Amino acid sequence: MAGQGLAAGFLQVPAVTRAYTAACVLTTAAVQLELLSPFQLYFNPHLVFRKFQVWRLITTFLFFGPLGFGFFFNMLFVYPGPREWGWRGRIGGVCWARSGETEAQSTWHFLYQCCRFRYCRMLEEGSFRGRKADFVFMFLFGGVLMTLLGFLGSLFFLGQALMAMLVYVWSRRSPQVRVNFFGLLNFQAPFLPWALMGFSMLLGNSVLTDLLGIVVGHIYYFLEDVFPNQPGGKRLLLTPSFLKLLLDDPQEDPNYLPLPEEQPEH
C-alpha cells in the first residue's frame, strides 16, 4: 500500500519535474549500488570533446552525491537503522562523499535536496503551467550557461547549481509568498536562495556552486521577465518551435467549425 501511495503521488508530479527527479534518483541509485562510478559522471571537457564522452554533459546535472537513502527508507517503512555509504571519492580537491557522516547529517542533506526539488515542482505548476516546452528550454538555457561558466570555475557536478537557478526564478516570480524555512525562520520568497546557500555552507558544500545557479537564474529572470517590459525591450529567449510541437498540447483553432455530426444536440 505504501508503494502504491508513493507511485500515485509521483505520477501527480508535473511531467518535466517528474522526469528530472526520476533521472536523478536512478543515477544516484546506480552509484549507490556501484553500477556506476562518479568518475563516469562528472563534467570533464577533455573527456567530452577529445574522448567523445558526451553523456557527461547530462550526467553532471543528475548526480548530487548520496542523498540519505537510510533516512529515505526509514521514512517509508518507519524502520530504524543507519546506513553507511561505504565509498568515497575526490576530484580536483572536491569531496562528494562523506563516509563518516552521521544519520542526522545524512537526513539534513536529504531534506536540503528535497526542498530544492519541491520548488522545481512549484515553478512548473505555477508560472510554467501548460508550458512544458518553455520549462524544458529554461533547463537547456541554464544548462548550457552553467556548463560554460562551470568550466571556468572548475566545477564538476552542476545539479545543485541547476536547482539553485530554479529556486531563484521561482522566488523572484513569487515575491509576496512567505516561506517557512524548516520550521526555523519565516521570510519573503526572494530571500530563499540566499538562505539555502547559507544552509548549504553549513552542510559543507561549495558556495561557488550555489552562486553559479543564482547568477544564471538572475540572467534568465532578467531576459525573460525584466528586459521585455523595459522601453524598447523584447523577448530574447524564444523557445524553438520543435520543442513546442513535441511537448506542448496542441492548441485548438479558434476559427475551427466542427462538422454537423460533431456538434452537440440541443
DSSP summary, beta strand count: 4
Uncertain runs with pLDDT below 50, 5 residues or more?
69-100
The N- and C-terminal alpha carbons lie at a distance of 46 Å
Q: For the largest beta sheet, what order do the strands appear in spatially?
A: 1-2
InterPro entries: DER1, Rhomboid-like_sf
Transmembrane segments: 20-42, 54-79, 135-158, 179-196
Main location: endoplasmic reticulum
Membrane topology: Multi-pass membrane protein
Describe this structure in words.
It is found in: Endoplasmic reticulum membrane. It is a multi-pass membrane protein. It comes from Neotoma lepida (Desert woodrat). One of its GO terms (cellular component) is endoplasmic reticulum membrane. InterPro entries: DER1 (IPR007599), Rhomboid-like_sf (IPR035952). The chain has 266 residues and is mainly α. It has one domain (37-76, 99-247). Helices cover 54% and strands 5% of the residues. The chain contains 11 helices and 4 strands, in the order H-H-H-H-H-E-E-H-H-H-E-E-H-H-H. The chain has helices at 2-11, 15-32, 45-49, 56-59, 69-77, 103-125, 132-152, 159-173, 192-202, 207-226, 241-247; strands at 90-91, 94-95, 178-181, 185-188. The strands form 2 sheets. It has a two-stranded antiparallel ribbon. Strands 3-4 form a two-stranded antiparallel sheet. A hairpin with a 2-residue loop joins strand 1 (90-91) and strand 2. The longest helix is centred in the middle third of the chain and has 23 residues, at 103-125. The relative contact order is 0.10. Residues 69-100 have low confidence and may be disordered.
